[in-house]
Amino acid sequence: MLKGEADYFLCYPSICDTYIAQKFLTNLESRGHLGIEELEKPKKAHFAVRNDWPELVSILNKAILAVTTEEKKQLREKWFNRSYSQKSLIESLTDAEKLWLDSNRRLVFSQPKKYSPYSYVDSDGVFGGLASDLIKEFNSQYKVDSYYVDYPNWSETYQALLDGKIDYIPTININEKRKQEVLLTTPILTYNLTIFSHDDGPYFNNLDELAGYRVGISKNSSVANLLRANYPNLNFVTYKNGVDVYRALSDGKIDAAAASPHVMYHTINEYNLENIVASAETEFRFELAIAVNKSKPELLTLFNRMITNLGPDEIDKLMDKWTTVKIVHRIDWQSIIFWVLGVTLLLITLSTILITLNKAKTIKILAENDKRLTNAQRVAKIGSWELNDRRELVQISPQIRTLLGLGSEFSLTQEDYRSFVHPDDLEGIKQSWKRALKTGLYQHEYRISVGNEEKWVREVAELTFESNGKLNHASGIVQDITERKIAELKVIQNENELRSLTSKLLNVQEEERRRVARELHDDLSQRLAVLSLSIGTLEQDKDLLPAKDKLNAVKQNIITVAKDIHGISRRLHPSILDDLGLIDALKSEIKNYVDREMIAVDFETTANKVELGKEAELGLFRITQESLRNIAKYSEASKVQVTLSIINQHLILKVMDDGIGFDVQEAMLSPGLGLQSITERARLIKAKLDIQSSDQGTIITVDLPLDR
């Protein structure tokens, strides 16, 4: 492409742009896309991990998610389009570039005389502004001499560059026309056209809000043409030049002006226009560059190297220096006389100024605080409102209008706002407001519909009342919590799915237990009984009398195994629960538990006549069984008490022991104590579970409502 043998090259922008920046190839640039859907999709890079290390994949994913948006931005700025050689500029030149530089040690430039603070010539003929520092840096780095040539106006200066009479212009705004006519470096500075207003006047958030106000512009300026083309309905007041515009703003003759922030702050400092303040940046973005004659692409590359070597921070420091500098003008005697008269007038009016000074400062501080509050609300997605005693909205912050997708020209009443609320949430808001009229505090989360989009918001308000209890005032905030709410709903959905899966697993487990218990009881137990009878028959055989004792021992072992199998079958699924109900099943389980574990258990019940469903009976039985198993395994208890009672239509099951206790919160996270099983079974039968534990023992309480 550099040789002109190809017109286009296809690649991913992040790769090519970085290479172009590293090699200073500023005569190459990204021009567009092919419109092929598959190629338009963003290219994603991934870590590749061994397929037998899924843990590393999980760790890397968590690390990637932990990188904040600001950190990603910093990484992009570090590695994309920012890489360049750290060698001195002379050392980084190619042989061809050094040869060109040796043949062009004398360069000629020009610049408008009045373009402060970017460039200017003062009354002593001294060249100043950002351009002067850039030229000094360029001359120093490349050991060249740059000579200034004066032209009467900007048009002739620019034409001289086109004609090749000068080699470059050190500061110029980039536009499409100039891109075609001259070579332009990487932008030196980038700034947004900014709205300025009087510190005693209104503040403006955007150009739309200037409607109905007086907007100052300078005759035939590029800013004036831009504003007239894009905002023709604004009330423009035209002045001869920019300084006249800014003085008119300072004097209150106009309400606002739009300008480069560098130019405005320089003018404020030079002419002491301290009552002018910045309101807001506009959507119009400008870039400042160095313009080079088309016949000297080598010179363009040298300038780009210098700009990259300086870096944006150093250029910003240079710009700050010239923004705050004061230009010294020659003053004649007539000016001195006027100055003396001005001082005299100042002394006469000093008392008035002192009185009004504090007021002006206070207004300025309040306006600045209001601007900070607006910015803070925008970042936090929070809007504020005020309600009077007639329940009328008397103040609404811009963020609420942004949330609802409304412009500043739309008035908004309380009824208008309610029209955005989701119909299903209106009743909840009504009830929360009723409670607020009693407590003085309102808080509610609900949905609003904005176009085709549904958003979640959280509204909080504080109400004040008169002595008779009537509402006097209310102030509140509305916060966009859509992202948080979606995440919460997703968590709830996942929890519900997990609980549903757990319920199914418990049901499957119970069915499998029932099947195994039935097979143990109906099949294996019967076969052992037959085997025992067969051995009993052999005991009666006279031929086997010498082996009678051994046969009897085998028979006793078979009987013991049969009892153990019966116990296992009963613990897997007690048939007595299906046949006789919960009370008898608990009595049987406790009796066998005492015989097996040698721990005293006292069982008391006043709920003999209670009728429960099969699911509830099984759940309570399993909770008791699991609790007793935990006591035997962990508690070192000597005595246990199990009670079952009915209190106010609630069935209360309690399992109490005198053991060593445990940390409930820690145990809930451990897979070893079976508390998760107890908790899940209580939830499945819609019972409330409470576990209290100390070094004096543990109490497990299950509260099951009976009026369901």
TrEMBL record:
Spans traversing the lipid bilayer: 336-357
Database matches in PROSITE patterns: HIS_KIN (PS50109), PAS (PS50112)
Keyword annotations: Kinase, Membrane, Transferase, Transmembrane, Transmembrane helix, Two-component regulatory system
Span of domain PAS: 369-440
A GO term from the CC aspect: membrane
InterPro entries reported in the protein's UniProt record: HATPase_C_sf, HATPase_dom, His_kinase_dom, PAS, PAS-like_dom_sf, PAS_fold_3, Sensor_HK_TwoCompSys, Sig_transdc_His_kin_sub3_dim/P
This protein's record includes keyword Cytoplasm: no
Signal peptide range: none
Gene3D superfamilies in the record: 1.20.5.1930, 2.10.70.100, Histidine kinase-like ATPase, C-terminal domain (3.30.565.10), PAS domain (3.30.450.20), Periplasmic binding protein-like II (3.40.190.10)
Ranges of residues in domain Histidine kinase: 515-708
GO molecular function, one term: protein dimerization activity
Listed NCBIfam families: sensory_box (TIGR00229)
The protein, known as: Uncharacterized protein
Protein species of origin: Vibrio ishigakensis
